[in-house]
Structures are given as structure tokens and as C-alpha cells.
Design goal:
alpha/beta, eight-stranded parallel sheet, two-stranded antiparallel ribbon, 11 helices, 44% helix, disordered N terminus, Aldolase_TIM, Deoxyribose-phosphate aldolase, EC 4.1.2.4, schiff base
Length: 314
């Protein structure tokens, strides 16, 4: 059965057996993708464009706290920072706060009346190694508590074992459980081993109904890299050409500096164009990135760096 735009459902064939979209994906040229990703990181960016890019990167950030010591107070403070990262009115709010399901009501209350979304990890994050009914209940509960977005993890062991239809079915079921909430599918690229498998996993996720595909949980090394992000962006581009459907992208984990953030924006612009340069279609998973971007903005404004102590560490 040919791909039909990612409706997330396998169809019943003439014999009653389920049939699936075509999961096949082009082979990735490792040398080419790594060289191109590196080259795009060397682009010279003029001052006005740099400032615009830094402000845009803030608007695209998902501020994240996913630690065992997370508390209502910590989440509330992070929400305050997401709504107003800086005293200057030119600095926009962040895109979302990402928390564990238990803390979704806290974030929802703290963000009431703002544009900042509440995202929640689910589906036995970060391993994905629970029974499907447990994963789906995790999703439904997070949505019922107010999550606008769900960040799910795939079962990497199943994918590495070649169980592609199982991955497809789990993503499709998770999408259904999300209701009106957007679904980000985390591939955990650092555990997949090859660019070819990353490309194929991206294809499966998009066909199954993902609204976004995401590199990593932030719990595995390596996490996001420019090269693996480029592979996923190219998968999104080809999916758009085939179906007309725009899928979002979220690199996450290990993105700590303003220079890195600008590199990722260049990757998006050169691969997908300006249409994807919006928080609706591109996010940066960030826990420590925001302060470095704010420091760079201050340097562009005043000509001097401020100390990192000038900004909250939340």
C-alpha cells in the first residue's frame, strides 16, 4: 500500500489482514550529510539578522525540567521565566514548558492567560518500555490534566529488532489518545545507530500521524547533532513533497549555546525554507540554552557580555 499522507491507520486488505504504508526511505550518504551540516554551521550572520535569529530561537524554545527532584515550586518558577524571559519587551515568551505528567496541572495554572504551551513527556519516558495500555493511559491522563502537547518515546528495542509495524501502531494509537493535543515523537537517535535507521524511523512516525518528530530525550548521549537533525529535516521535506503535509521538527539535548541555536535555524532555512521558521513547526529542546541566548542579545545591544549570574538559573 502506498503512503497516503500519514493518517496513522493501517488498512484492512482484501483478505482482512492489515496493510501498511510504505516505510522505505532513501539511503543516507553519511559523508555528504555530515559535511553539509558542518558547512551550514559556518555561515556568517550579520548583526541585525543575528539579533532576529536569537529572538526567534527564544520564541521556539521548550523550557524543560525532567528530573526526579522536580517540584511545584520549581515548575512555577520555570513557567514565570518562559512567560517573561527578559525585562525587555522585544524578547518574546518561549514556546512551551515541558514537564512530567504529574506536574502538568501546576504548569497549566502558572501559565494561565499566556501563549506558552504545556508539553508533557509520556509513554514511559525515557525508555518506552511499558505495556501499550499503560503508555496510552499515561497520555490520556496528561491530556486530561491540561497538556497541549505530548512528547512520546518510541520503543527503540522494537525498532532495532525490525518491528516496524509495531512502532507504527503504537504511534498511531498514541496520536488517537492525544485527542486535540499535538504529538511529538521522540526517536532517541543516539540509540538507533545509523542515519539510515533515523531516516526510516522519521518516515514511520510521520506516516503514523506525528505532528513533530524529535531527536532525543536528553537522557542519552549523543543527543541532538546537526547531522542527525539534517537527516530528519530532509525526511520532513520529502514527506511534504509527497503529501503536502507540514511536519514539525524538534532537536533536543545538548543544545547549550546561542551559536548552536543559530546553526539549527540555518539548517531549517536551507532545508525547508522560511515556512518552517515558526514555533508551530520548529522547536528547540532547551534546559540551559536560554541564558546563553540572553547573554548574546545583551552583547549585541551593549557591546559587552553580562555575567551569567545576571540571569536566573531556573
Amino acid at each position: 500500500m502506498a503512503a497516503e499522507g500519514g493518517n496513522g491507520k493501517g488498512a484492512a486488505g482484501p483478505s482482512g489482514a492489515r496493510t501498511y504504508p510504505d516505510f522505505s526511505a532513501p539511503t543516507v550518504d553519511k559523508v555528504m550529510v555530515e559535511e553539509r551540516a558542518a558547512a551550514l554551521g559556518k555561515r556568517s550572520i550579520k548583526k541585525e539578522t543575528k539579533v532576529a535569529g536569537l529572538l526567534l530561537s527564544i520564541a521556539m524554545m521548550d523550557l524543560t525540567t525532567l528530573e526526579g527532584k522536580d517540584s511545584p515550586g520549581k515548575v512555577t518558577q520555570l513557567c514565570q521565566k518562559a512567560m517573561r524571559p527578559h525585562a525587555s519587551p522585544e524578547v518574546p515568551p518561549c514556546a512551551a514548558i515541558c514537564v512530567y505528567p504529574k506536574l502538568v496541572p501546576v504548569a497549566k495554572h502558572a501559565l494561565a492567560g499566556s501563549s506558552v504551551k504545556v508539553a508533557s513527556v509520556a509513554t514511559a519516558f525515557p525508555s518506552g518500555l511499558s505495556a501499550l495500555d499503560v503508555k496510552l493511559e499515561d497520555v490520556r491522563r496528561a491530556v486530561a490534566w491540561g497538556a497541549d502537547e505530548i512528547d512520546m518515546v518510541i520503543d527503540r528495542g522494537a525498532l532495532l529488532a525490525g518491528e516496524k509495524t509495531r512502532i507504527f501502531d503504537e504511534i498511531a494509537a498514541t496520536k488517537e489518545a492525544c485527542g486535540q493535543a499535538h504529538l511529538k515523537v521522540i526517536l532517541e537517535t543516539g540509540e538507533l545507530g545509523t542515519y539510515d535507521l533515523v531516516r526510516e524511523a522519521s518516515q514511520i512516525a510521520m506516516l503514523a500521524g506525528a505532528d513533530f518528530i524529535k531527536t532525543s530525550t536528553g537522557k542519552v548521549t549523543p543527543a541532538a547533532t546537526p547531522a542527525v537533525t539534517l537527516v530528519m529535516l530532509e525526511a520532513i521535506r520529502d514527506f511534504f513533497y509527497a503529501t503536502g503535509k507540514r511536519i514539525g521538527m524538534k532537536p533536543a539535548g545538548g543544545i547549550r549555546t546561542a551559536k548552536q541555536a543559530l546553526h539549527y535555524l540555518v539548517l531549517v532555512k536551507e532545508t525547508l525554507g522560511d515556512a518552517w521558521l515558526t514555533p508551530d513547526l520548529f522547536r528547540l529542546g532547551a534546559s540551559t540554552l536560554l541564558n546563553d541566548v540572553l547573554m548574546q542579545l545583551e552583547k549585541e545591544r551593549t557591546g559587552a557580555y553580562q555575567s551569567g549570574d545576571s540571569f536566573s538559573k531556573d
